[in-house]
Amino acid sequence: MIQVTPVILCGGSGTRLWPLSRTGFPKQFLCLTGTDSLFQQAAQRLAGLGNNTINVASPLIVTGEDHRFLAAEQLRETGIPLGAALLEPVGRNTAPALTLAALAAAQNGADPVLVVTPADQTVVDSAAFTVATQKAIEQASQGSIVILGVTPNRPETGYGYIQVEADAVRTGVQGSVCAVKRFVEKPNASTARQYLDEGGYFWNAGMFVLKASVWLDALQQFRPDIYKATFQAWKQRSTDTNFGTTFVRPGKAEFIAIPADSVDYAVMERCPGRAFPIYMVPLDAGWNDLGAWDAVWNVLPKDEHGNAHIGDVLTSHSRNTLVHASSRLVSLVGVSNLIVVETPDAVLVADKTRSQDVKHIVAQLQATKREEHTLHRKVHRPWGWYDSIDEGSRFKVKRIQVKPGASLSLQKHHHRAEHWIVVKGTAEITNGSKVLLLTENQSAYIPLGEVHRLANPGSIPLEIIEVQSGSYLGEDDIVRLQDSYGRNGPNS
């Protein structure tokens, strides 16, 4: 029986899918196609790889501290148990991330086959994905490095390519195993057309299959500096379990010192012709990395005029448009090749051919430190969410939902008072030395500087309206005194 551990890389911010994707809620956690997020789709694809000869363990996920509860909650919704969440204190690209996963998987003498995938891709044909990946697992169990190569259907300049050996299957037959000749960088348009015409070239989707020991051995040979630095960070790790989820934190100072590099540059591109055999299995399964809004348009169903619409949308005499409406009616008249993305606090309008340039808007938001770069108006927290529905001089109004059994931190504020009105459910409110139990239409006033906490002791979600008043209403005016989720900063 081949033991398999899925590894899902959940880093990245998806800046080219702004305003839907933001630092605090990046694209891998969005439902861009179907009813599940891209991360949930990845977890479900990997969980379905088992058969009579392959045993699939619970997945390891590598993500950042800020997204740990979001990832754990989304995985819980799928019913797939989490092996562990490995939390990077800073981004160091995919090579250190995979090294953390390999070290975690190799504990107690284990040496499973790792199936490594980014969390932000979509696959239309899950059955074809399963066939190709199971073939890759079989090959990797023999000590090979295997990469899934996407069969190209157009001369794409946005992806790197994998060239297979001349005697390998060149037509992309699902389930074949091809020896890799070389990796090539993103080509220009004429070179990409040449690759498509010649055959034998496949898109590099960043999906790898290999034993944990094979990765660690290859990294030690090609990038011993990354291996040693990551191993030192791993040795200094701390582990805690919160609400049934195991969080593993490598040593922060040691992790920051790790050289940043990708799996491709650190190892894969160095393998052909050397001691580590590397193979490719063709994947023809409707793969897309949804890197920008034009890619989202490509995978969505369209009307007879090429329009792909999500939400409340009306159009007249418009063609080849993408509209994503989150909170209100969006209407188009007489336009073509436009992308319109509406959220409660921002609207994007772009030429579909320039969707890659959305990152320039995000850069401006970062430079001016605007909150729209980081957070949506509706912000998810481990206890539930809040939606800032109105604000003005010296006041802010929030709608807050708290999950059954959950609670906010015990906290106080230096600059604001709060008034809470229960709309639905039961609220347990700590207000100084008093503990109150309030139900629908009842309210409580929290004076400035008073220690307080909001909890939901009931079995249904608690909803309240919070009215803040004071001289400063920023989210960083939170002094946490006690927290069930191990959070330190106000935005975690």
Structure description:
22% of the residues lie in helices and 34% in strands. The chain is an alpha/beta fold and 492 residues long. The chain has three domains: 2-288, Spore Coat Polysaccharide Biosynthesis Protein SpsA, Chain A, CATH 3.90.550; 293-365, no CATH class; 378-482, Jelly Rolls (Sandwich). It has a six-stranded antiparallel sheet, with no helix packed on it. A five-stranded mixed β-barrel has the order 7-10-8-9-13. The radius of gyration is 25 Å and the shape is globular.
Numbering strands along the chain, what is their spatial order in the largest sheet?
Answer: 21-22-23-30-25-28
Question: Helical element count?
Answer: 11
CATH architecture of the largest domain: Alpha-Beta Complex
- The CATH homologous superfamily of the largest domain is termed Spore Coat Polysaccharide Biosynthesis Protein SpsA, Chain A
Number of domains: 3
- What general form does the structure show? globular
> How far apart lie the N and C ends?
41 Å
CATH class of the largest domain: Alpha Beta
The radius of gyration is 25 Å
Low-confidence residue ranges:
none
Total strands: the figure is: 31
| Class computed from helices, strands and strand pairing | alpha/beta
Tell me the strand percentage band: 25-35%
**Mean pLDDT, as a whole number?**
92
* Biggest sheet features: 6 strands, antiparallel
Q: What fold name goes in the CATH topology slot of the largest domain?
A: Spore Coat Polysaccharide Biosynthesis Protein SpsA, Chain A
Into which percent range does the helicity of residues fall? 10-25%
